[in-house]
C-alpha cells in the first residue's frame, strides 16, 4: 500500500488537532490512517528503504595527494559498497502542509577497495599497493517531507523536501601504509560522506517516485460482477491532521452497462477518526448511500429475480402436491408442474442503525403453472420482509449476513379465487427460511471489496455502527514483497 502508506527535517507543520475529520463531501467511503497506522507505514517505508540501500555501489573516487616524505600519491577508492544500515530512532509527523519522516542516529557500514601509486625523485621506481577498508558511518540523519494531492481522481505523492546528513564517519584500514590512513581521513572523509549523502538522497527520490507510480496504478473503479462497478475515484485532497490522514473515494455502485446517472445524495459528512477506544491502524467508513446505490443498481439491472421449480433440491413443484393448500389450483390445472417467480418489486430500503443494517425487501412471488410449455401466472403474493444485516470483514472484503426479523404477506392478485392465507403464510415462512434468505446470504457472502492496496491485508478488524456510517477499524499486515516487486517490474 503503500498508498495508504505515506510520508527535515521537522519544518513548520501547521497542526490541526481534532478527533474529527471533515470528510470530503461526496466521498461515501472514507479511510483514516491513524497515528498507529502512520507509524506502521513509516517503519515499513524505512525497512523497504534500507533494503534498497544494501549492496548499493557508490562511485569511485580518485585524488592526487602530496604526502610528506613519500611524494605524489595517486589514491583510488573503488567498489565502495553499502553493507548495512541500522536505524536507531525515527518519527513521523503530519500537519496540514505535509507528512514529515525523520530518521536520526542511523549507523551504516561500507566496504571499499583502495589502491595507490607513488612516484617521486626519491623513489624512481613506482611503488604501488592495494587493499580494503571498512567505513563506519556513526551518525546519520535522514528526513523527508511529503504531501498527497488529488489529481483527477488519483492520488499524487509529492516529495517537497528531503535530505541526508552524515555527521560522523570513521575508517578502518586493513593493511596499507600508515600515511595512507592519514590521507584517507584528511582527503577522502568529506567526499565519502557526501557520496553517501548523495546516494541516499537519490534513493529516496527514486523510492518516492516508485511509490507514486504505485498510487497512479490504483484503479479508479473496481469491476464487481457483470452488473456493477464500484467507483473508487479519490474525492478532494487528503486531509492531514496532527495524527492522521483522511482520504475519501466516491464509493458508489454504478451500473456497468449504462451511462451512469449521477445520484443526488445529501452531504453531511463529519466522521470520527476514533475506533471506540481501540488502537487500530486504519478506519474505513462506509456511508449508508453506498448500500443504497448497490440496491438501486442491482434492482435496475433486473437481477433481483429468482425462479424456483423445486423445493430443497428434491420435490418438483406440482399442483397435485398443492391440492390441499390451493384446491382451486388443482381443480383448474390437475397434475401440472409449477414454478415460483420471486421478484423484488422495488429497490430494497437500507438503513444503518446502531447495531446493524436494517433492510426492508419487497418481494412479489408469482405462482406460475407450466402447461404444454406455456408459463401461466395464476396468482401473486406480495411479501414485505424486514431483515437485519450484520456485517463482518472476511479477508479484504466486507460481507453481510441477513437475519429474518418479520414478514407480512398479502394477496396481490389471483386468477383462481381467494387463497387460504394462513396456509400461504406458513408456506412463505418456510420458503423464506429455506430458500430466499439462504440465497440472499449466499450472494452477500461475496461481499464488497474494501479499498486497500494489494499486498496488504486487514487484520483483527472490528465493525462499528455510527449511523449513517458503518466503519471497519483494523490493523494492516504486509503479505509479502511479491506484489510490490511485481509492480516495480511493471513500471520500470
Ligand atoms: C494532536 O492532537 C491531539 C488532540 O486531538 C493532542 O492531544 C496531541 O497532543 C496532538 N499531538 C501533537 C504532536 O501535537
Ligand atoms: C567489491 O566488494 C565486494 C564486497 O563488498 C566483493 O565481494 C567484490 O568481490 C568486490 N569487487 C571487486 C571488483 O573488487
Ligand atoms: C557494522 O559492522 C559491525 C561489525 O562488523 C556490526 O556489529 C554492525 O552491526 C554493523 N552495522 C550495520 C549497520 O550493519
Ligand atoms: C539510540 O538513541 C538513544 C537516544 O537518542 C541513545 O541513548 C542510544 O545510545 C542510541 N543507540 C545507539 C545504538 O546508537
Ligand atoms: C466516479 O466518481 C467521480 C468522482 O465523484 C466522478 O467524477 C465520476 O464521474 C464517477 N464515475 C462514474 C462512472 O460514475
Ligand atoms: C416474473 O415476474 C415478474 C413480475 O413480478 C415479471 O416481470 C417477469 O417477467 C417474470 N419472469 C418470468 C421468468 O416469468
Give start-end ranges of low-pLDDT stretches. Answer: 1-21
CATH superfamily of the largest domain: Bactericidal permeability-increasing protein, domain 2
Please work out how many helical segments DSSP would assign: 6
CATH architecture of the largest domain: Super Roll
Using the CA coordinates, give the radius of gyration.
34 Å
The tally of strands reads 26
Mean pLDDT: 84
Give the distinct bound molecules: 2-acetamido-2-deoxy-beta-D-glucopyranose
Helix/strand-derived category reads: alpha+beta
Strand content: over 45%
Distance between the termini: 18 Å
Shape: rod-shaped
Domain Lipid-binding serum glycoprotein N-terminal: 33-258
Protein name: BPI/LBP family protein
Keywords: Glycoprotein, Signal
Signal peptide: 1-19
Question: What would you say this structure looks like, in words?
Answer:
The radius of gyration is 34 Å and the shape is rod-shaped. Strands 3, 4, 5, 6, 7, 8 and 9 form a 7-stranded antiparallel sheet that branches. The protein has 492 residues and is an alpha+beta fold. 23% of the residues lie in helices and 48% in strands. One 2-acetamido-2-deoxy-beta-D-glucopyranose (NAG) binds at residues 26, 153, 231, 233, 235, 250, 254, 260.
Task: Name a few traits of the molecule.
7-stranded antiparallel beta sheet; BPI/LBP; 492 residues; binds 2-acetamido-2-deoxy-beta-D-glucopyranose; BPI/LBP family protein; Bactericidal permeability-increasing protein, domain 1; alpha+beta; rod-shaped; disordered N terminus; Bactericidal permeability-increasing protein, domain 2; 2 domains
Amino acid at each position: 500500500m503503500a498508498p495508504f502508506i505515506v510520508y527535515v527535517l521537522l519544518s513548520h507543520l501547521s497542526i490541526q488537532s481534532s478527533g474529527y475529520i471533515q470528510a470530503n463531501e461526496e466521498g461515501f467511503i472514507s479511510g483514516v490512517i491513524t497515528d498507529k497506522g502512520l507509524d506502521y507505514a513509516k517503519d515499513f517505508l524505512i525497512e523497504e528503504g534500507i533494503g534498497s540501500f544494501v549492496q548499493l555501489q557508490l562511485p569511485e573516487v580518485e585524488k592526487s595527494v602530496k604526502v610528506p616524505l613519500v611524494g605524489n600519491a595517486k589514491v583510488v577508492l573503488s567498489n565502495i559498497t553499502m553493507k548495512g544500515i541500522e536505524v536507531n530512532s525515527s518519527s513521523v509527523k503530519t500537519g496540514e502542509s505535509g507528512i514529515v519522516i525523520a530518521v536520526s542516529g542511523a549507523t551504516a557500514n561500507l566496504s571499499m577497495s583502495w589502491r595507490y601509486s607513488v612516484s617521486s625523485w626519491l623513489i624512481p621506481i613506482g611503488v604501488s599497493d592495494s587493499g580494503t577498508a571498512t567505513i563506519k558511518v556513526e551518525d546519520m540523519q535522514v528526513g523527508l517531507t511529503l504531501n498527497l494531492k488529488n489529481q483527477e481522481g488519483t492520488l499524487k505523492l509529492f516529495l517537497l523536501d528531503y535530505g541526508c546528513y552524515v555527521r560522523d564517519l570513521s575508517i578502518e584500514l586493513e593493511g596499507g601504509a600508515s600515511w595512507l590512513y592519514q590521507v584517507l581521513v584528511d582527503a577522502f572523509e568529506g567526499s565519502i560522506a557526501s557520496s553517501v549523502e548523495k546516494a541516499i538522497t537519490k534513493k529516496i527520490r527514486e523510492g518516492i517516485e516508485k511509490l507514486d507510480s504505485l498510487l497512479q496504478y490504483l484503479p479508479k473503479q473496481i469491476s464487481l460482477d457483470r452488473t456493477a462497478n464500484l467507483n473508487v475515484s479519490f474525492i478532494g485532497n487528503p486531509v492531514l491532521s496532527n495524527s492522521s490522514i483522511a482520504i475519501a473515494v466516491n464509493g458508489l455502485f454504478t451500473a456497468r452497462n449504462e451511462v451512469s446517472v449521477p445520484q443526488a445524495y445529501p452531504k453531511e459528512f463529519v466522521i470520527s477518526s476514533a475506533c471506540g477506544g481501540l488502537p487500530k491502524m486504519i478506519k474505513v467508513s462506509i456511508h449508508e448511500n453506498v448500500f443504497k446505490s448497490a440496491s438501486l443498481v442491482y434492482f435496475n439491472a433486473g437481477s433481483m429475480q429468482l425462479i424456483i421449480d423445486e423445493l430443497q433440491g428434491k420435490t418438483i413443484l406440482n399442483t397435485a402436491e398443492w391440492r390441499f393448500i390451493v384446491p382451486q389450483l388443482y381443480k383448474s390445472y390437475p397434475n401440472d408442474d409449477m414454478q415460483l417467480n420471486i421478484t423484488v418489486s422495488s429497490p430494497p430500503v437500507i438503513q444503518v442503525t446502531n447495531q446493524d443494517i436494517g433492510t426492508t425487501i419487497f418481494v412479489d412471488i408469482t405462482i406460475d403453472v407450466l402447461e404444454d410449455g406455456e408459463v401461466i401466472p395464476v396468482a401473486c403474493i406480495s411479501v414485505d420482509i424486514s431483515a437485519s444485516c450484520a456485517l463482518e470483514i472476511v479477508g479484504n472484503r466486507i460481507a453481510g449476513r441477513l437475519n429474518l426479523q418479520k414478514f407480512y404477506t398479502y394477496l396481490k392478485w389471483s386468477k383462481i379465487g381467494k387463497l387460504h392465507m394462513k396456509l400461504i403464510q406458513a408456506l412463505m415462512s418456510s420458503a423464506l427460511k429455506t430458500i430466499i434468505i439462504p440465497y440472499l446470504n449466499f450472494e452477500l457472502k461475496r461481499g464488497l471489496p474494501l479499498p486497500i492496496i494489494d499486498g496488504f491485508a486487514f487484520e483483527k478488524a472490528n465493525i462499528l455502527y455510527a449511523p449513517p456510517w458503518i466503519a471497519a477499524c483494523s490493523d494492516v499486515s504486509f503479505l509479502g514483497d511479491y506484489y510490490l516487486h511485481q509492480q516495480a517490474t511493471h513500471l520500470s
